Amino acid sequence: MSYFLGIDGGGTGCRAAIADGSGRIIGEGASGPANISTDVKTACANILAAARAALEQAGRGHVDELTAVLGLAGANVTAAALSLQSMLPFRRTRIVTDAVTAATGALGADDGIVAAMGTGSVFAVQIGSEMRQYGGRGFLLGDEGSGAVLGRALLSEALRAEDGFVPMSPLLQAVLDELGGIEGVISFGLRARPAEFAIFAPRIVAGGDPAAERLFDSAVAEIRAMIDTLQAGRDLPVVFLGGLGAHYAHRLQGLWPIRAPKGSGLDGALHLARQEV
Amino acid sequence: MSYFLGIDGGGTGCRAAIADGSGRIIGEGASGPANISTDVKTACANILAAARAALEQAGRGHVDELTAVLGLAGANVTAAALSLQSMLPFRRTRIVTDAVTAATGALGADDGIVAAMGTGSVFAVQIGSEMRQYGGRGFLLGDEGSGAVLGRALLSEALRAEDGFVPMSPLLQAVLDELGGIEGVISFGLRARPAEFAIFAPRIVAGGDPAAERLFDSAVAEIRAMIDTLQAGRDLPVVFLGGLGAHYAHRLQGLWPIRAPKGSGLDGALHLARQEV
After folding, report:
1. Which of B261, B223, B216 is closest to B241 using CA atoms?
2. Per the CB < 8 Å rule, is A165 touching B189?
3. Per CATH, which fold does B147-259 belong to?
């Protein structure tokens, strides 16, 4: 009997699901953080704990019988992925980024485009059984339209408004007041991680502030152009994921078919695991 | 008899000049680095060494007779400026940023706008005896049109070109090849300081590459809009400083009177020192 393990692991937690040969989920488990670029040993322990909990719920199967696909934050760091691979006891193990399993879960077996718009941003195109990732590339040089990049743009705009280069708005003034004026904004910028810039994103996409609307309009235009490029004249369905996904979907409706995700990243990991045999 | 001391100090060295009551320079000196936010004790020692060398050349005056204005990198860090102030033996001491002395030197007593376009960027407007600084704000949130920001934009564009979002160009391909492809560009971006991003600026402003021209056109339009805002309907002369200054001056000629700088940052420091009494 074949059993399949799907893992979806990130900076906050790790989820596991076991499926039988028919694809039916027979056990699930959860544990703590599993970002392998941060701490591979802790990630490994939490992956095993989640897998064992799922096996226990299933009441059958053993770790060395599992065909496993793990979608993990930090899996783009090749050394960390190789190190984890050597530590895992599964019969067969494939490690991919959590972006790959999220996109696979969102599309299932269908052709389509996934736009994951969270703290960062990344795109994927699936045609047939081929999936390719685009964009991402991080806070400083890429992550177009992401929450962190929108937050940074808001702080820049607040500084420009304080100098009179662009009109002041209620949100820009609020940000200046909250962070302690120009000096406060600059020192926040020097120490903040991307997730801290992204804290401002909900206030940007909420609408109602002229500066926020200008910034979000510009991001929406950029993401539209990127998806048009990925469509390459086709009319593939587009699935938006992430905390800002619904806001982009709302603004871009009517351009292409926009679909809800078929399943989660955990579903995507199980889907890929069943393709392994 | 009154003597005046001007100091122009930055990360690479410190220059000093002594002038008599008529404004004539009677002695000059130089020494090592004087960035007070990096190392205030070394900066203080180098400032005193340069001042003593200038006094020696002048053959008259003593440190405790000097009215001094110091234009120093890092002087925007208030704690460092106050610490240095307490360590200096001059009769009267005023510490300002090197951007202020550079702008004062460039304009002398004239009304005008200074656009300093180097690794970073900063603007100043002088009307009557009032000078105000605008922009700057650093690599992450400001420094519009600067060499470091242009270099970062080039690396972003190279990543987008590699994904097919924008057309590849010879310069973008060269940058990808030199830095080791997508992974190399991303890891360069994560470790590079602003001055390292600025290394790419001369190739961007040189012209001849379609991607570089697009990026520089966009920066020129941004700087034009910022200077138009600072003009506020006036027709003030504009002085461009810094390594990229001549490139912006060339592209923006005919819009406002563009002038060569009247003098250096050291001239600016002496000019301000004579205004102190």
Report:
1. B261
2. no
3. Nucleotidyltransferase; domain 5 (3.30.420)
